[in-house]
Amino acid sequence: MEATIKQIEAVLNAKVRPSLAEHNGNVVIQSLEDNILRVRLTGKCSGCPAAHSTNEELITAEVCSAFPSIQDVILVEEINPELLDMAHKILSHQI
Question: What is the pTM of this model?
Answer without folding.
Answer: 0.80
